[in-house]
């Protein structure tokens, strides 16, 4: 027997399928996962989550643990020059107080980021087709790591 209150009978054709996005702001983010990839760019993939409840870009309440994903290259490739890579990695080293001083030390210590809380300015990256030709929905990204 089904009733109008049964959530399994909800009309899904009109349901908002967008993923909730954090409003652009400064957040303390816990590093849940940090992984150094073996690609040419030496990409460090970071899975982060909020440490406090937050608001979405639509004003909705979001619980602690809202996810943010970001990547950082540790090797120069394409348009990423060595100077750009060094500045990007330096900002994470300084914000995390990781204790590493060089790019090579950072690469060896990526896993030790896990569990650390970093302060970051989070932005909304608009939807669109990337340089790789893949269409992506709007998503959160880290624009800046902030020293604490």
Tally of individual helices = 2
Largest sheet: spatial strand order:
5-2-1-6-9
**What is the CATH fold-level name?**
OB fold (Dihydrolipoamide Acetyltransferase, E2P)
The chain-level mean pLDDT equals 92
Shape: globular
What is the class in the CATH system? Answer: Mainly Beta
- What gyration radius follows from the Cα positions, in whole Å? 18 Å
**First-residue to last-residue Cα separation:** 57 Å
As for the number of domains, it is 1
CATH architecture: Beta Barrel
**Main β-sheet, in a few words?**
5 strands, antiparallel
Q: Percent of residues in helical segments?
A: 10-25%
Low-pLDDT runs of 5+ residues are none
Helix-strand string: EEEEEHHEEEE
Strand content: 25-35%
Alpha-beta content class: alpha+beta
| Number of E strands | 9
Structure description:
This protein is α+β, with helices and mostly antiparallel strands and 148 residues long. The chain has one domain: OB fold (Dihydrolipoamide Acetyltransferase, E2P) (Beta Barrel). Helix content is 15%, strand content 34%. The protein is built from two helices and nine strands. It starts with 24 loop residues before the first strand and ends with a strand. The mean pLDDT is 92.
């Amino acid at each position: 027997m089904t009733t109008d209150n049964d959530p399994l009978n909800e009309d899904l054709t009109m349901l908002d399928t967008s993923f909730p996005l954090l409003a652009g702001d400064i957040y303390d983010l816990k590093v849940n996962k940090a992984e150094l990839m073996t690609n040419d760019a030496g990409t460090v993939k970071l899975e982060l989550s909020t440490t406090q409840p937050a608001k979405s870009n639509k004003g909705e309440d979001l619980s602690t643990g809202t996810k943010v994903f970001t990547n950082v290259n540790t090797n120069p490739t394409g348009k990423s020059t060595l100077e750009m890579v060094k500045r990007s990695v330096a900002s994470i080293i300084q914000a995390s107080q990781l204790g590493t001083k060089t790019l090579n030390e950072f690469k060896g210590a990526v896993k030790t980021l896990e569990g650390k809380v970093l302060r970051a300015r989070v932005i909304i990256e608009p939807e669109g087709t990337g340089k790789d030709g893949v269409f992506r929905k709007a998503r959160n990204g880290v624009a800046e790591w902030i020293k604490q």
